[in-house]
Amino acid sequence: MARSSAFVAPALPATGRVARAPAVCMGAPPPEAVTRRAALAALAAAVVGVGGASSASAGPAASQSFFGYGGASSPYSYADKSTGSVLYKDLNDEEVGKYRAIYQASRQDLSETAVAAIAGKSWEDVRSALRLRANDLGAAAKRLSDASSSSKAANKAYDQFKASANRLDWAARQKDQAKATAAREAASADLDKWGQVVGLF
């Protein structure tokens, strides 16, 4: 028996007819769908039209009114003269306190944890002390340095701290106690210098 590639629908046993799919009609939609569509279009037009007509008189700022209540005015107005003190500050006391705590914790890691780890020749602990708060200290340094009145000097001082911290990391990798001790002292001094430039103490 030869196979053909064409599909042949199975014959029905009783009648011998071929089963067929129902016919698909592409005619006009039923009348209830047209009225539903028209009703939805009318509803959409009513919702859009709720805003009402706006006056185009010169001077007042743009506003929108919903459900008959007065529209909110724009916070900006032409030729407005500000009076009084400025309320916005680049850094508030809460932020400075948070960044000071990060700085103090990083300083403690360098002065206590790293010293003990270098003395005990626990090199992974030295490297962990450097990395423990690196992300937080970096974010604090960026924010405090940018807000500082001498941001160029602050960024330079922080870059110097990062370089000495990298030297400490390298000395810990090399397991050189003398170099690690010198690099830790330099990193601690550079961190203090940066803290002084940004005004943390």
Automatic annotation (TrEMBL):
<dbReference type="InterPro" id="IPR023222">
    <property type="entry name" value="PsbQ-like_dom_sf"/>
</dbReference>
<keyword id="KW-0793">Thylakoid</keyword>
<dbReference type="GO" id="GO:0005509">
    <property type="term" value="F:calcium ion binding"/>
</dbReference>
<dbReference type="GO" id="GO:0015979">
    <property type="term" value="P:photosynthesis"/>
</dbReference>
<dbReference type="InterPro" id="IPR006311">
    <property type="entry name" value="TAT_signal"/>
</dbReference>
<protein>
    <submittedName>
        <fullName>Uncharacterized protein</fullName>
    </submittedName>
</protein>
<dbReference type="InterPro" id="IPR008797">
    <property type="entry name" value="PSII_PsbQ"/>
</dbReference>
<dbReference type="Pfam" id="PF05757">
    <property type="entry name" value="PsbQ"/>
</dbReference>
<dbReference type="GO" id="GO:0019898">
    <property type="term" value="C:extrinsic component of membrane"/>
</dbReference>
<keyword id="KW-0472">Membrane</keyword>
<dbReference type="GO" id="GO:0009523">
    <property type="term" value="C:photosystem II"/>
</dbReference>
